[in-house]
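Kindly go through the entry underneath: sequence plus fold tokens. Please state briefly how this chain folds according to its tokens.
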Amino acid sequence: MSLNAYEVFVAIVERGSFAAAAHQLNLSPSAVSHALSAFEQELGFTLFTRNRSGVRLTAGGEALLPTVREVLQSNEKLGQQASKLLGLEAGRVRIGAFSSVSVAWLPKIIRTFTDQYPKIEVVIEQGGYDDVAEWITKSQVDLGFITLPAAPGLDVTPLYADPLVCIAPPGFEPKSKAYMTVDELAEHNVVLQGTGYGKETEQLLASHRISVKSSARAIDDAAIIAIVESGLGVSVMPQLALLNYRSAVQVFPFYPAESRAIVLASLSQEGLAPAAKAMHAHIVVSVDKWAKGKTAST
């Protein structure tokens, strides 16, 4: 069984079709089909069922996938360690992140990292909190930005306490005029995020035992800001999510202060390949520097 067959198998799983896997691997569709057929013959069972909408893993494919990913990850780690012994910092690191980190932090992180390690390829996957945690667990990414509480079994490094704020339409005035309380949210229509994207709001409301009315839900930060700006309600957002958006919304801190804890997660820091270890260290140092700079300027 060849590593090429393992790569083809995983690429089909992640991309959902033979054609997309072929494009990713820079192979012809017939080469992908041939490699998979040979792999299935060696195994003695099929890995996918084919239909008009694409492919689906069989029960055997589902059972085999974690082991195949582990083999590919170990091979990547071996290659990186060999390159390091030769004095070359080479390899690939895969990062999972939610929207606000992808917009506010990752461009600077990737730029400064690749300046230092030009031979290391950086791959980014964006999704919700639950998506990123699942990708780490399934070894689809090496590192992921998530918020606490973290799923069991993840190795986490604290990065940043991101303040939660209330955004409101132009002309809105809270009772205190300067800040919002969580209790006051119950008096307004609250624009909520989709499942898996607004964990911090759910935790905030649950911890204060507050129920709110909501006539609007959205996934991405820009949509929530636009809905609030139009006057359809207020919303709870992390301060980080507002850094790169210009709008007429008003921003009020909560009193008492509320925040989400952003952490960098992996299956095991010790088990990371050299490229991922280098990225892990770079992220921790970068975020710490930005956080200290922000504290000094406030």
The domain at 159-260 is CATH 3.40.190.290 (D-Maltodextrin-Binding Protein; domain 2).
